[in-house]
Every structure is written in structure tokens, then in C-alpha cells.
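Design job #97: recover the sequence.
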């Protein structure tokens, strides 16, 4: 079967290990979604970017390193990825302060964690019209 799919739109930015980068990550995401004409569920996407970036800073980014925020849009889907170089794999209930991933799980259509060397990629996806 030959399925026609649109090529993915991709934007990414590397952030240093600093709490001030959370606002910058949200701003970058808002600007990117606007430029792509993907306004649907923008508030949900921005909240999930905040939560994933905060988790990366708290648990996944060693001193002297940073995290990568990658945004992708394809076939009615917006995907958010936060890449870090820390140990472990994120999951709900991993820490007492794990409410952020509960929010991500409630707002996103799908989310997960993939291993990378070093570290991990925590991702979430939003699907539907305007995504």
C-alpha cells in the first residue's frame, strides 16, 4: 500500500542547565507552533514542554550539560521530545514529585521514554485537527 504522508516539520533548540530555560523553551514552542500554523491544543503542548523540561533539569541533566528540545509536526500530529544525558528512565511514580508526568499523561494523546546513549528521550504527542 502506498500511503502519502507529509514530510515532518522539525525545529530544535539546545538549552543549558538553568531554570531560566523553562520560559525560553515555552516561548520557542509557542513561536514554532504559530509559524507552523498549528494552534490547536497549544496550551496543553506548552504545559507539557514545561513539565518535561523541568523534569530534565531536576533529574536528567548533569552539571555542565544541557537538554535538547525537539518539536516535530507531521500527519496531524505534534510531537515534543526532550533529550537529556542523565541516567534512568522516567516513569510516573518514580519520585514523590512525579505529578508532572501525570499531567503529561492526562494532556497528551501518547507519551513515553526511549533510551539513548547517554541518557533518554522523553516524548509526548498531540493529535487531531490543527495539530
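Job complete. Output follows.
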Amino acid at each position: 500500500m502506498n500511503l502519502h504522508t507529509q514530510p515532518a516539520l522539525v525545529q530544535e533548540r539546545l538549552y543549558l542547565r538553568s531554570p531560566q530555560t523553562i520560559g525560553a523553551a515555552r516561548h520557542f514552542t509557542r513561536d514554532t507552533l504559530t509559524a507552523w500554523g498549528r494552534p490547536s491544543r497549544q496550551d496543553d503542548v506548552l504545559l507539557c514542554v514545561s513539565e518535561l523540561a523541568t523534569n530534565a533539569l531536576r533529574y536528567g541533566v548533569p552539571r555542565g550539560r544541557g537538554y535538547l528540545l525537539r518539536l516535530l509536526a507531521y500527519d496531524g500530529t505534534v510531537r515534543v521530545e526532550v533529550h537529556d544525558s542523565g541516567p534512568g528512565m522516567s516513569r510516573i511514580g518514580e519520585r514523590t514529585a512525579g505529578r508532572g508526568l501525570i499531567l503529561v499523561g492526562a494532556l497528551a494523546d501518547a507519551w513515553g521514554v526511549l533510551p539513548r546513549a547517554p541518557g533518554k528521550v522523553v516524548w509526548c504527542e498531540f493529535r487531531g485537527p490543527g495539530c
